[in-house]
Specification:
This protein is mainly alpha-helical and about 210 residues long. It has eight helices and no strands.
């Protein structure tokens, strides 16, 4: 009975997440926020019951990430987005450490790290930071982590393009214009080779304009 109840709660948490996705597509941000938070609460409760369960850890991270991206792209509270993504990264890092053979865990961690770099770059651009700025440094740390510290992943054009765009943005903010242009061109060429392009956030190329 306990297992069946947990499975029902798990499915209910996922359903709230899917509902939030649909509401977001309809442009109803407030309803999507409510659905994502209901989803995250259910997923967090299951995680708290058994924080060693891989699926509960994975679903909890998914719930946190949904709210983070809503904050980033629609509500505009970048600090809250960072807080949620930092929690997401911690959970996903643990999953990758415990289950290195599961590709999905590594892919989702890479997505989160890329997203953290992007948010810090957006804040750096808003604040007019140049080389050595705190948010620019944080973004470079996440980029370095993505390139050197995470497990190697199969080649995926959209992920590589996001990384190149982040590196181009760092170069642009650091006044390395030629490097920024070369990296941005490489990102464009990478995307042209991918028929299944992941939709970028609204702010990806703002600092290269």
């Amino acid at each position: 009975e306990g297992r069946e109840k947990r499975e029902v709660l798990r499915d209910l948490g996922r359903s709230h997440g899917y509902l939030g996705d649909l509401q977001l597509l309809e442009g109803n941000v407030s309803k999507a926020e409510r659905s994502y938070k209901d989803s995250e609460e259910l997923r967090r409760d299951l995680y708290n019951v058994n924080h060693l369960d891989a699926e509960f850890r994975f679903q909890h991270a998914r719930g946190l990430c949904n709210i983070a991206l809503l904050e980033r792209d629609y509500i505009g509270d970048q600090q809250k987005a960072i807080e949620y993504l930092t929690q997401t990264e911690s959970l996903q890092t643990g999953l990758v450490k415990d289950f290195p053979e599961i590709l999905t865990f590594s892919q989702e961690l890479a997505y989160t790290v890329n997203s953290l770099a992007e948010i810090h770059l957006w804040i750096a651009a808003e604040k007019g930071e140049t080389a050595g700025g705190p948010n620019l440094q944080k973004a470079e740390e996440f980029i370095d982590k993505l390139e050197t510290k995470l497990p190697a992943l199969p080649a995926e054009n959209h992920r590589q393009a996001r990384l190149l765009i982040n590196k181009a943005t760092v170069a642009a903010l650091s006044n390395r214009k030629t490097e920024a242009e070369d990296l941005a061109k490489s990102a464009s060429l990478t995307l042209l080779g991918d028929r299944d392009i992941e939709t970028f956030g609204r702010r990806e190329l703002v600092t290269l304009a």
